Amino acid sequence: MSDVFYPLGGIASSEIELLDRTIADEFESGATSSRRLWPDRTFKRRITVEHQNLSIVRFRVLEEFFAARSGRYDSFWFRDNVHRTGNHKVRLAKPFQIERSGKMTYNVKLTFDQVAPVKAFPTLRDIYNGALFVPDLWLDANRALWAHDYLALSESNKLYEADIYQSQTDSPTRLITWNSALNAYVALGDTGICQQYPEYYFNNDKYATDNTFTTGESGAKKVHSFFIVARRVSTSEKIIFGKSGAGANQGVGIQCNAAGSVSPWAGGSAEVWTGAMSNPSSGAWFTAAAVWPTGSDVASWYYNGALVGTKSVTRDMFDSKFHIGARLDGTTKFTGGVLQAIHFSAELDAAGVAALHNLFAYQVGLATV
């Protein structure tokens, strides 16, 4: 019963308290000593939400939801779109109260407590400290604006996302849009969305492209570094994450090869990356990075934080846009999940790739390096 989502949108305001577990001792001298009982950067959250005024129909949905939970007994998933802190498994912290105004609408303010402490997400500062560069694109499924509303959607058991914004920037103006609004939903239960760390799931049907940012390649071939946390189901040639133009062989990124291996991608078809590819099991999470220096066709390939090898495959200069889940034109659609997709206009080294792997490894159960 606990793998269900909170049924309503329409949040007017939201507050989150980060609760830590620290023991502090004070000595006779006045000095103090503290000891944390939970791991580093780990908190339980207390979330208080206030809804916009609810009609009786929408209030009944909420009332029935908490009746099914037996009030404070059963947990459920709550998606925080206000602060973009992702999924939280919570319970009611206080009894469900009913308040009705003279306008015949219901005023609802609820407090939820997280059922277990969870580590805080890596930040842009963490990425910079590890990679030593600021990314120019960072797509984080944890921070995506997933909307879920039982009554507003044609299918009640869906999460929906219209747009993907670059995460954690001062001005998140770079927008990647889904090729079709109908392709932007994720069915609950069959793609792992009811979990602490959800994913962008691609099922050979949807992809997203960058409609607001174009960089013209000129002069020397530019430097590129791609980093992903992903899992593949595809066993044929598919594009996971890239940046490319409209012409043939105009691209760079990360692909799934015909045999199910993953490798860099230089914009072509049937590329051979012997010595610079990896073979994850179907459905198994991995991290990967593909790095091209300025003016070079030689890509360095990293898998789960370690260098696998280098390989030269000719790449062209191009006018480019980002794309995820397929080529820019929507062909070679990927089947699998992507949790993190990051691009740097800089050359990451082995230490930087390892640092990125270690930042996100805990979210998918990988060992650090």
Which key terms come to mind for this protein?
Jelly Rolls, eight-stranded antiparallel β-sheet, 3 helices, seven-stranded antiparallel β-sheet, 2 domains
Describe this structure in words.
The chain has 369 residues and is mainly beta. The chain has two domains: 109 residues, no CATH class; 241 residues, Jelly Rolls, CATH 2.60.120. Helix content is 10%, strand content 37%. It is built from three helices and 25 strands. The strands form five sheets. Strands 11, 12, 15, 16, 18, 19, 20 and 24 form an eight-stranded antiparallel beta sheet that branches. Strands 9, 14, 17, 21, 22, 23 and 25 form a seven-stranded antiparallel beta sheet that branches. Strands 1, 4, 5, 6, 7 and 8 form a six-stranded antiparallel beta sheet that branches. The radius of gyration is 23 Å and the shape is globular. The chain starts with 10 loop residues before the first strand and ends in a 5-residue tail after the last helix. About 8% of the residues have low confidence.
